[in-house]
Design a protein that fits this description.
elongated
């Protein structure tokens, strides 16, 4: 569980950093990579909550 929490935190920080780079530079590559990272973060979050639900059963 601790591993999932750290992965989620690092993923969210990575997304935020990429969107900040996009805001300062205006380069589309940072926005595209940020959106891809955000999708991966959502997958990690869904797995995290699925594990929590399965532990309660």
């Amino acid at each position: 569980m601790l591993l999932f929490r750290w992965v989620m935190l690092l993923s969210l920080l990575t997304c935020a950093g990429l969107f900040v780079f996009y805001a300062f530079t205006g380069q589309q590559k940072y926005k595209e990579i940020g959106l891809t990272a955000l999708k991966a973060t959502l997958v990690v979050a869904f797995v995290f909550f699925a594990v929590l639900i399965l532990q309660r059963i």
